[in-house]
Amino acid sequence: MKVLVIGGSRNIGYYSAQRLLGNGATVIFLLRNTSCFDTDESIKQYIASGKARLVQGDALKKEDVGKALAIASEGDEPLDAVHFSVGTFPKFSITKGLVLDPPNLCARSMLNLLSVLPRDPASQPKLVVVSSTGLGKTAHAALPLPLKPFYGLVLDGAKGPHADKLGMERVITYAAGWEWPAADGEPDKTILADGWQDHVGPYGWLKHAVVVRPALLTDGDSVGENPKKAGEAPYRALDHEMKGGYTISRKDVAHFIVTRVLPEWNQWEGKRVRIAY
């Protein structure tokens, strides 16, 4: 298997890449700073062996995303999948909560990726996108009651992390031809400017995509890797809103993507999957 990882310098993208490499996959990283693994022995060994390749570039630049896709597509081995988990640490504002700079990092990066992916379904790699739970009115209504104030005040501002991810999901939904809930409205124009559809291409061309919507993320260990009880499901993964889904560790999101989504693709393709303990 060969996978292009966009957003793999840390967190879910990094943990997924580690698992993929450990399973024998070839991983191509698109990185703004290719020195980020200079002291990382777990990745350096794969760079030395050629199983990991670092491509310098910025997901906010279409030409850089196109370059990474072209490099990942080289050789006799086909590009099987693109793992997209772009994100950054937002800044905190007393009046606005958590604010991203730029406010549309995920949405713009996704626009760039979709603008260079092959349109022919036969040559499209699988696309796995890490998003978030609680996006939009429908998903927010399904959140556990104690989490609603936090999501509403901190994450869901007009220029907060969820506004950006909502824009990202709007772009994917259009490209994939999925239904967009009318109650969720349209993203703010600071996230998606007028005419964004022109960058995506024709409606419904994206055939091989899965969106993973984790609950509130933690830095805990992977329960999927080390189950607390034999035979017990380590976490829940559903293609509809779930009750009582409070948290999930970043390592378990990676565990789900690598051990279930990619090898069980026919089960998950075309779905927006919620994952939580």
Automatic annotation (TrEMBL):
<dbReference type="InterPro" id="IPR002347">
    <property type="entry name" value="SDR_fam"/>
</dbReference>
<dbReference type="Pfam" id="PF00106">
    <property type="entry name" value="adh_short"/>
</dbReference>
<protein>
    <recommendedName>
        <fullName>NAD(P)-binding domain-containing protein</fullName>
    </recommendedName>
</protein>
<dbReference type="InterPro" id="IPR036291">
    <property type="entry name" value="NAD(P)-bd_dom_sf"/>
</dbReference>
<comment type="similarity">
    <text>Belongs to the avfA family.</text>
</comment>
<dbReference type="GO" id="GO:0042602">
    <property type="term" value="F:riboflavin reductase (NADPH) activity"/>
</dbReference>
<dbReference type="InterPro" id="IPR051606">
    <property type="entry name" value="Polyketide_Oxido-like"/>
</dbReference>
<dbReference type="GO" id="GO:0004074">
    <property type="term" value="F:biliverdin reductase [NAD(P)H] activity"/>
</dbReference>
